[in-house]
Each structure stands twice: as C-alpha cells, then as structure tokens.
C-alpha cells in the first residue's frame, strides 16, 4: 500500500487544516518534552509567529535511561490541546503504548510513532485503527524497506494517512548523535507515494548542525521538517543540546523562505 504502484500520484495527508505532501513546506516544531503549560503555550506562539504550522511535544518520552524524565503523560496532552485552542496549530504527540493511544486520541491531531517503536507491530496496528494521521519515524537501524513495511502495518488497518520521518540512523560515526540519511528522501520519493519529512534535530543532536541539514533536506525534496525548540534549551528536561532558541528558529524559517513556500 505505501508502494507507488498502488497510487502513482503523491499522497497528501491532512493534519487539522495543514496539508503535508502538497507544494508547501510544513514545519513542525516544539519542545522534545512537554514540561509545563507555560512552556508549551510560549513555544506554540513563538513557532507560529516564525512560520511553523504544526506543534510537536512529547508527553510520553521513550528515554534511553529509565531514570530520565519520562513525560507528563495525560497532563502533557492536555497542555498540547490547550495550545491548539489558543493558536489554532494542530498538534502531534508520540504514543508509546495502547494506553497512550487511548488518551492521545482525545487531545491530538496526529499520532507519532517514535524510532524505538517503528517495529512495534502491535502499536502500529493500534495507531492505524484510530484513523488519525500517523507520523512514522524511521527506526534507529531500520532499512528503508523495513520502514515502508512498518507503514504498511498502519495502512493495512484502513488508514492511509501516514507521513514518514527520516531522523537519522546508526552508523560508525560518533561526531553526531545519528547520521542523517538524506538519500532516504529521493529513495522514498521513488518507491512510495507517502509524504516524507526530515528531523535534523534528532539526526544530529547538535544545535549548530540543524540549520545546514534542514536546508539540505528541503533541497533533497522533503515535504516538511521537524525541528525541536525550547524557550530556554539550557534547562530543557530532554534534548536541550539540539533544541533551537526561538530567535534561532525564526532565523532558520527566514532562511528557508527563499527555498520553499511555507504552509
Ligand atoms: C522525538 O521526536 O522526541 C523522539 C523521541 O524522536 P525519535 O523517536 O526519532 O528518537
Ligand atoms: Mn527529542
């Protein structure tokens, strides 16, 4: 079903009033983790003003260490919904379990399946059943074929609204957190009709590399970007080192404008 032979034209996925896969570049932005109501509302207003059209923020955080901040869970989802009500931005949140899906469907416009759950086939099917658009991140060590098969688990439930997200893969390189596989963009465009966005924040783990890779993703033909932002990255509860400040995010959006029309 993700294969182009079933659907020769590129698919356009609707998230709230935002179209992903059309001729406009969609920028999703927000904090790694929802930390407080104030943080989320402040971020939503700032990213909207800069040019983003979807708010991201994790309420269930699949952290590498069990002792790291795990997320505000349903309270976090509630803040995201309040941010949508205040700004009109649709919201996307990661779900890590069936319970998280059951809560999230009351609050969000799009479900995110994270890299660590890309092959959690049970979770993929449950996300598919909701009918909500699903943002499917590429697994840390997943081939493009495995990633497309994962999308098929969602689509096999009668849900065609899948957006792929390249977020870097494991390689021998240690200078960056992961290695952005920019070639995934043209490869996916050749094999599949699904929209693909790129997340240079998780791909690099380093704030100063986010802008050049965001630019290269757009040049390669990505339909959108996911960029982590925080009011004060120095005190972020997760992924501070890769998060942009609001002025940095604004500059990035300004520099993207000559390359693409923002949604
Ligand atoms: C995230 O988007 O916050 C996240 C945890 O990303 P990934 O699943 O790509 O590591
Ligand atoms: Mn993060």
From TrEMBL:
Molecular function via GO: aldehyde-lyase activity; transferase activity
Keywords for this protein: Transferase
Keyword field contains Transferase: yes
GO biological process assignments: aromatic amino acid family biosynthetic process
Domain DAHP synthetase I/KDSA stretches: 17-257
Domain of life, source organism: Bacteria
UniProt keyword annotation of Transferase present: yes
Name of protein: 3-deoxy-7-phosphoheptulonate synthase
Lineage: Bacteria, Bacillati, Bacillota, Clostridia, Lachnospirales
């Amino acid at each position: 079903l993700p294969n182009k032979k079933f659907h020769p034209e590129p698919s356009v996925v609707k998230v709230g009033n935002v179209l992903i896969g059309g001729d406009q570049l969609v920028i999703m932005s927000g904090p790694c983790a929802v930390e407080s109501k104030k943080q989320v509302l402040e971020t939503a207003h700032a990213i909207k003003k800069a040019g983003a059209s979807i708010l991201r923020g994790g309420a269930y955080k699949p952290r590498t260490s069990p002792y790291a901040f795990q997320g505000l869970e349903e309270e976090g989802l509630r803040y995201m919904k309040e941010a949508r009500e205040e700004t009109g931005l649709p919201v996307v949140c990661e779900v890590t379990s069936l319970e998280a899906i059951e809560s999230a469907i009351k609050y969000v416009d799009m479900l995110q399946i994270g890299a660590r759950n890309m092959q959690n086939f049970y979770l993929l099917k449950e996300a598919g059943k909701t009918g909500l658009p699903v943002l499917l991140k590429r697994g840390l060590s997943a081939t493009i074929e495995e990633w497309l098969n994962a999308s098929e688990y969602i689509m096999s439930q009668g849900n065609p609204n899948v957006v792929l997200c390249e977020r870097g893969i494991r390689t021998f390189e240690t200078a960056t957190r992961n290695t952005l596989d920019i070639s995934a963009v043209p490869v996916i465009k050749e094999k599949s009709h699904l929209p693909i966005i790129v997340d240079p924040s998780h791909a690099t783990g380093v704030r100063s590399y986010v802008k050049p890779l965001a630019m290269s993703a757009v040049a390669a033909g990505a339909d959108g970007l996911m960029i982590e932002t925080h009011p004060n990255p120095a005190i972020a509860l997760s992924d501070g080192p890769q998060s942009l400040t609001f002025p940095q995010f604004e500059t990035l959006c300004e520099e993207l404008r000559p390359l693409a029309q923002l949604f």
